[in-house]
Amino acid sequence: MYSPPDPHRSPAIRRAAQVLAGGLCLAAAVAVWALITGSFDETSVRVLLTGFAAAVCTVAGLAGAMAVRRGGATRLVGRATIALSELALALMLALIWIPDAGDGEVALRALGVTTALMLAGAHASLLLSRARRCDANAVRRLRKAAIACATAGGLLSSGVFAVSEGSVDSAVWRALGVLVVLALLATLLIPLARKIAQQLPRSKRGTQLPHGA
Question: How confident is the model at residue 167 (pLDDT cuts 50, 70, 90)?
Answer without folding.
Answer: confident
